[in-house]
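Entry for the shared binder. Reason: the reviewer on the internal report wants the predicted structure included alongside the sequence.
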Amino acid sequence: MVGYLFGSVLYGIILDKFGRLKGLIFAVVTVTVAGTVAAFAPVFAVFAFCRFIVAVNGFGAYLAAFLLATEYIGPSKRILCTMLIGIFWSLGYMLLPLFAYFFRTWWILQLVLTVPTILFVSYWWIVPESPRWLLSVGKSKEALKIISKMAKVNKVTLPEDIFTESWKADNGDGLIKEDEETHGKFLLLEMLKLPNMRMKTIILSYVWIANTLVYYGLSFSTSNLGGDDFINCFIAGAVEIPAYAMGIFIPDWRVLGRRGSLIVTMVIGGIACIAASFVPPCGDYIWIGVTVTMISKFCITCSFGIVYVYTAELFPTPVRSMAVGISSMFARIGGIIAPQLLLMATLWENLPALVFGVSAIVAGLLIIPLPETRGKQLPETIEEGERFGKIVGNGRPKSGQIYKVEDAGIEDVRMNAI
């Protein structure tokens, strides 16, 4: 989890500086090397260090793949893409106990799980770089080649003025100029001075921490449910597939929307987690406990996918990507705390599940004051972000604290044509 925390910070820089594809290949190669060395580590300290490197770069590979997938498509399909990525994560989750069942020696299991990752190096020749990233750094010619190929595959005609000289003059041959990008980083700090934006940031930071805390707490405690450890781990992964599938539809349901879906899934997940803590892990009660725990896992997994989309839509354009990145960084805190909280079972067996459940319920209730984003015009400036969903004060920023930054989102329009 500490490796994930470092990876979220480090690869946030690497992927923006060097590109999504280069970052992905670097991460994959590093994971393969470090994972292989870990299998032959002579002492635990070397093994732990290698596993840390695997975690840092493993998260980097996931982040790079996530960005590539979501940046290839238009905004209307991002929920679908996010949930599909989660489904493939779950498939990997389900394969882990299967491999662990057949390969009982730890170092052989380590090699079996690590060595195949080198195959992803082939993506260098198969997967194109993100056109959005290329445009953001001013490489419009390379972006045009990729976009033209995408248009040809999809049998659509590109707009004639996609990269005209007048457009290049207006946009500096790129969508985000370096000074604008740097200014955006300062805007993130200035944003926290505004009461409504600050309150949204605090609430969502806790929601991310609680979500990850419960998710990994339940994942790490499957061996405490009673019954077969391999089967329990497999079920814990399998239950995530319908959870992500449900996450495709309920955020767009008019009755719930993004906010309602997040509230319902986190509160029900928390209640189920508390209920599971009072089911004895023995005799005829084993499957009752497993079922209730999996209901909690189902809800928390669904909310995990929704919170990504909701966070991105709640924050204004100039700081949107940074806000999601920082929220993800806070999420790693929950992942770090989760295994430590499981040790509280030595004080009282039900205590960890109660803490997880209460944390999820509190997070769900804290979301209530936040605004709904489904079908709403998303905030494009810091000023609009402050006014969007007034949850403290009168929603009017103080004099001298209003910032207007033009949205460099023309690429969404152009990519939507594909």
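Summary line for the report: The first helix runs from residue 2 to 18.
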